[in-house]
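Q: Predict the bound structure with JA5.
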Amino acid sequence: MQFHVLTIFPEMFPSPLSASLLKKAQDKGVVSCTVHNLRDYTTDKHHSVDDAPYGGGQGMVMKPEPVVAALESICLSLSNPWRILLCPQGTPLTQAKVAELAQRASLVMVCGRYEGIDERIRPFIDEELSIGDYIVSGGEIASLVVIDAVARLIPGVVGNQESVEEESFSHGLLEYPQYTRPENFRGMRVPEVLLSGNHAKITSWRQQQSIQRTRERRPDLLTQRGLRTE
Ligand code: JA5
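A: Predicted complex:
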């Protein structure tokens, strides 16, 4: 899987891309991440990537020329690029959407900034995505969320593929509580069932804990699955 990111803040990317899972995936060669500076695709003297909005109003708008020049140049060398704009108006990202994106050969992500982006870039985009109903100051962190979530589904990225399957196996229920040593931490004991060695009993306790937790904290997940919430 190839990830390409178009941004006016390329310096936001090296640290998150060079740690942990994404670092290992790139070292293995199953994932590549390339960050492109939109300023490199400007042709004017001042390398402008933004300008004041027509019609007036607060803030600045991203200019269309650098974005479209970058998309055209980068996509030329890709077999089947899927072009994404990260913006607050996009379709909310879900795990189902992440799984769909993981089937693509290359994702090219434009990071929105400022008060918005010139409307005329939209014909050059295949899909607009949002990471949720809150405002962050730009699409950069959103694109890192997409990269991380998609990369985990690429075979060979998560060392133990079982943990990916187990997470999706629990089909949108919250995880059960976990414990490690010590058996007694400040008077709080590990539940007896986990020390019993009875694996059938442990499995059913964990299932019941998952459902109870989901009912208490995320009843919306149960109704989505068609389960009772009381
Ligand atoms: C861009 C001033 O969820 C994806 C998002 C992209 C993006 C967001 S949230 N805010 C901005 C932005 O805010 O330019």
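A: The domain at 2-151 is CATH 3.40.1280.10 (Alpha/beta knot).
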